[in-house]
Amino acid sequence: MEKKLSFSEILKKYTMVIVLVLVVIMFTANTKGVMLLPQNVNNLVAQNAYVFILATGMLFCILTGGNIDLSVGSVVCFVAAVGGKMMVLNNMNPYLTMLVMLITGIAIGAWQGFWIAYVRIPPFIVTLAGMLAFRGLSNVVLQGQTLAPMPDSYLALFNNYIPDPFGKEGFNVTCFVVGIIVCVVYVLLVLKNRADRAKKGYSVEAFGGAAIKMVLICAVILAFMFRLAQYKGIPNSLVWVVVIIAIYTYIASKTTTGRYFYAVGGNEKATKLSGINTNKVYFLAYLNMGLLAAIAGMVTMARLNSANPQAGTNFEMDAIGSCFIGGASAYGGTGTVPGVIIGALLMGVLNLGMSIMGIDQNIQKVVKGLVLLAAVIFDVVSKRKSFIVK
Fold first, then answer.
1. pTM given for the model
2. Nearest to 126 by CA among 169, 67, 171, 176
3. Confidence band, pLDDT 50/70/90 cuts, at residue 381
């Protein structure tokens, strides 16, 4: 059975997508096209890879009831400090170092998750303590110094580009072909999911609306890959981001564990009475956050080609902002990984666009703060209206 959405429902569902498009158009016009130059499109990915990674993890914390992790920026710095000391000062193998960095992130996530899940200390307090403690430990490890440069074999994992066997001058054919393949796979998955839902008797979106959405998304993907192809092709950092997004999208939407996060955020008492171990859900959320903070630390250290005491500053704000802008509810139980990616893209576009225009850093913070506040107000007001209607 096809379900037709009203104009107001469509507007509400795709509000942030529309805002993202309008912001891109505004910056493109104000920068006379500089915003969409191939190198700047590449920079959008390279400079904001950490936001996509951290925001994906932050979503699962927020789903459990609007909880956040204030420590991720400091954890990124600490993990990078550990990795930098091992590789630069002790000349240790980069792959062994990466394993130690991952274990360090997981251990931090487990430490904070234990106090939050099993002792029931508020996440705000635990992660605020972590923000201070791990920033301090980073300075202890680095002794206030910047360690650089990183080994070439390590940098190659994050800063290089996917090679193009076709080797066409000025245009990476492999990059554009990958874009076409992604579009084909996306369309097939949408059609398969639609057919499966119809077969089970569930309501599905009207085909006209679904077709328009598929065309628009494919057009955006192809335009994005075309721009990347005009520069150097697909950066390795984009591959890391896409793999993480794909894994966590699947976990959130297709697994039982993923649904537990939504259930806990929706009604923890009812979830507990249904036999679900809610303590374990909280623990997994922060354990996972530690893991992704470690990966973000690796990406950040490679981009900076150094480990320094100031790395990761305000990263938690970007991650939290991306989640709420992308549709995650301040009360928990609502939010999707694709929505968070839209929010992270909007944050990245704002950062890049305002930097190109030469807007003062302080004004940039004001703009991002107002955008975040507007997104949360929209969420709260829309929920209040729907409650009144019911």
1. 0.90
2. 67
3. confident
